[in-house]
Specification:
Number of domains: 1
CATH class: Alpha Beta
Number of helices: 7
Largest sheet: 5 strands, mixed, barrel
CATH superfamily: Nucleoside phosphorylase domain
Order of helices and strands: EHHEHEEEEHEEHEHEH
CATH architecture: 3-Layer(aba) Sandwich
Strand order of the largest sheet: 3-9-8-4-10
Radius of gyration: 18 Å
Number of strands: 10
Structural class: alpha/beta
Shape: globular
Distance between the termini: 7 Å
Length: 226
């Protein structure tokens, strides 16, 4: 099975790439691999793609890469913010639907989606679903150019879209996979709540740790499913 692991930044999947020895020169690729991932590495053709932060960088990198390479599954891994306080910091969630929340037009205080304007679509969905046995919470997300950090804009957003998670790449990832017919899965770990910026409250290290732990578990168990 050919698998592409996509992340915006290298630190978000640093543990996984280290365990799979992707960070080394090609001559050392796959040697001294973490014991628990050896079977997954031997059973699948696993590649990684670091796109850069944001939807534009993600769409460009994905389009360029997928035009030249074919995969059976693409997995977007990353950290994210949560609007939902019932989701704990560090929790890992499966994004089933993601929307380009800013794609449309303003009409005074109202927002008109690109769908209502008749110029396209802004919501995209995963085409690969995790088995229920993984026990991950399923969530809807939005993808934005500017992460929310203002009470007024957060309240306004909640008036026209229902989302639990916010990132800067997810919907662009789904869009690229849809355009090129690649099964897609998006997994996010919550590093912070969507609120006025409060870096002291963020749990980036915990989110990255839990994200990479899940990714390793998924790749190890995928051997049985495939």
């Amino acid at each position: 099975m050919r698998i592409l692991i996509v992340a915006a930044t290298a630190p978000e999947i640093e543990k996984l790439t280290s365990d799979l020895r992707f960070a080394d020169f090609d001559c050392d690729r796959g040697t001294h691999i973490a014991a628990e991932l050896k079977a997954a590495y031997n059973s699948h053709d696993i590649s990684t793609l670091i796109t850069g932060a944001g939807m534009v960088a993600t769409a460009f990198a994905m389009g360029k890469h997928l035009a030249q390479n074919q995969y059976d599954l693409a997995i977007n891994l990353g950290i994210a913010g949560s609007f939902n306080r019932n989701i704990s910091l560090g929790d890992v969630v499966e994004i089933t639907e993601d929307t380009l929340a800013e794609l449309g037009a303003e009409d005074g205080e109202d927002f008109i989606t690109i769908e209502k304007l008749g110029f396209g679509e802004s919501t995209f969905r995963a085409t690969y679903s995790l088995p229920e046995s993984y026990g991950l919470r399923k969530a809807n997300a939005i993808t934005v150019n500017t992460v929310h950090g203002n009470d007024a804009s957060i309240k306004k957003l909640s008036g026209y879209i229902d989302a639990q998670i916010e990132s800067m790449e997810g919907a662009a990832f789904f869009y690229a996979c849809k355009q090129l017919g690649v099964p897609s899965l998006q997994i996010r770990a919550v590093s912070n709540y969507v609120e006025k910026r409060n870096r002291d409250a963020w749990k980036i290290g915990l989110a990255i740790k839990n994200l990479n732990t899940f990714a390793s578990k998924f790749l190890m168990e995928l051997k049985v499913e495939s």
